Amino acid sequence: MSRIGKQQIAIPSGVKVEKSGLRVKVTGPKGALELQHHPFIEVKVEGEAIQVINPKPDVRAYKSMHGTMRALIQNMVVGVSKGFERTMQIFGTGYNVKEQGGKLVLNVGYCHPVEIPIPKNVKVDIKTPATRGNDVPAQFVCSGPDKQELGQFLAVVRKVRPPEPYKGKGIRYADEVVRRKVGKAFASGG
């Protein structure tokens, strides 16, 4: 039995959970999210808690979906009540970021600015629009109720210019550690 799957999901105040058929809809102050859960798994809304039940705990396919469905529903409940937030940093001299017409515009060393459309549920808050030297990075915070949508958007942004290992230039998550390499060592001629 899944240790994650058997835990109940507490419904915080201000959050409403509706279930009809295989669809689970969670509504809260940050928005509304909907999920069609797997047919192998049963979901019961009981008062102030959601229970995810595995009807056949001996079958491998059922076991694999038990914890997954519980985690997805938990993320929906947290997303509509508190929301998710991730900070990104851009290192590199002359690199900058701005929000323009529903798009995130990145100037990260290419001959053209890179424009990425911002999903409607994701909010971008630019803290530092441009890098200052190699020490102060450009910084922006992205937030939204849907953890998957937010993560996918940030993965697309990071892919524009991933951090390189020699100088650390590029786009990275604020808590990401970039392993640095030593550059070429020149030997003295003898």
Write a short abstract of this structure.
This protein has 190 residues and is α+β, with helices and mostly antiparallel strands.
Characterization of this structure:
The protein has 190 residues and is an alpha+beta fold. It folds into two domains: 9-81, Outer Surface Protein A, domain 3, CATH 3.90.930.12; 84-173, Outer Surface Protein A, domain 3 (Alpha-Beta Complex). It is 19% helix and 36% strand. The strands form four sheets. Strands 11-12-7-13 form a four-stranded antiparallel β-sheet, covered by helices on one side. A hairpin with a 2-residue loop joins strand 5 and strand 6. The protein is elongated and about 70 Å long.
Essential attributes:
190 residues, alpha+beta, Outer Surface Protein A, domain 3, 2 domains, four-stranded antiparallel β-sheet, three-stranded antiparallel β-sheet, 2 helices, 19% helix
CATH class of the largest domain: Alpha Beta
CATH H-level homologous superfamily name of the largest domain: Ribosomal protein L6
Supply the CATH architecture of the largest domain: Alpha-Beta Complex
Distance between the termini: 69 Å
Query: What would the average pLDDT be, to the nearest integer?
Result: 91
Q: How much of the sequence is in beta strands?
A: 35-45%
Which percent bin holds the helix content?
A: 10-25%
Q: What is the H/E order?
A: EEEEEEHEEEEEEHE
**Whole-number count of domains:** 2
Give, in spatial order, the strands making up the sheet with the most strands.
11-12-7-13
Number of strands: 13
Largest sheet: 4 strands, antiparallel
Oligomer: single chain
The parts where pLDDT drops under 50 for at least 5 residues are none
The shape, in one word, is elongated
CATH topology of the largest domain: Outer Surface Protein A, domain 3
| Number of helical elements | 2
Radius of gyration: 22 Å
The structure class reads: alpha+beta
